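Morning!

This is the sequence you dropped in the shared folder:
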Amino acid sequence: MLWPKLCKPSDCTYVVTYKTGNDFIDFELMGDARGYLSLSISEDVKMGDDETLTCTEGVKGSSIQQGYNPSYYNDWIKNTVLSNVKIARFSGGKKLYCKFRRPLQHTLNLYFQQLGDNKFGPKNRTFDLMRSFYLFLGWGPLYRGTDNMGHHIELPIISTNLVDLQAVSIVRANALSIPVQAHSAMMLITWMLLAGFAMVLSRHYKENLSSEWCGVKSWFQLHRGIMLIAAAMTTASFVLIFIHVDGWRDQASLHAAFGIAVMTLTIFQVLIALFRPGPDSKMRVIFNWYHRISGFLSHACAAVSMMLGVNMSLMPRQMQDWQTKMIGTWIGVHVLWLIVFEILKCRQKAEGKSSENYDLDNMSDKKSSNQGLQPEVTTTQPSCSMMVALVLYAVTMLGFLTGALVFIFIF
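The structure's back. Tokens below.
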């Protein structure tokens, strides 16, 4: 099992290998680890009801531990059946290497509290490695002065599919589960591309996209359609992640708080748009200002939430580094584009004023008929520079979005 996904075995950050004998299987683990590497064998992609095989190396020396995850914690089984153990450090102590042998079939004798009962009792749990399982690999520190595992800081990596331990194959792993990847992808598509594009249309392209589609200005049709898609994707992403993590998680409290703010602002944006006053209404000015400020705040909160999300302690370090640079650069470039659009819009207005033509040849005729000198205003035409800028803006945002999505699915 290799991670990140596109790595070669020689340069992967984490590697798990396995080789089956007659009645045993040899495992090798390697990766960056301060205190331990822990391999989990599971029937699903959630922590709980898993066997753990852990190598530790710290102030008390090295050890091999066999354990069981009843839920989001680990019980250490003292009577291990693991053998042929070899543990070492290399790369200046940065990487931990571990090799051990485990019987193909083994029954764990556990002592646990029966669900729905106040009595403690034994439980036997058999893990037959002739079957296929998901493989987890976690790492983290040891409690000070002991060889006891601390809670892993970063998310463990998980095989993308069930692994047949009897087969010879290359297995790739994800740090982010499929629901988390889907949540991240939908939010990035919405707030790195769709929302910004729709806001730019509304702010700067009312004159350039003034033709009508089905009796409605084209800029408004585009703005409304894109924002409805953005609202739907935000809602789906929000619901998906809360179902997946089963409520609130302290590790993501700030990220979640800004996410809730984004969701709330998005809902109010949609609701108030349903009651948009008519063009001649006295309330139209208030609506316009609220809609504009709320849209800006939702976009700003989304940017902050994305930055907090990729910098959660649970995220792999490589992903934190790359995504922080990607999203930070996107924020800076987006601000620059907004400045460019303001400049282009001011130039377009100035050019529009200078295009007012006076029919000097007929001036005397107009004076004689007491009509006075009247300006002949030309019809506003789409600005070539504005349309080119819109295309370049869309391509730039699409480039950043593609880069951010790639990093999500690589790690």
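Headline: The chain has a mean pLDDT of 86.

More detail when I'm at my desk.
O.
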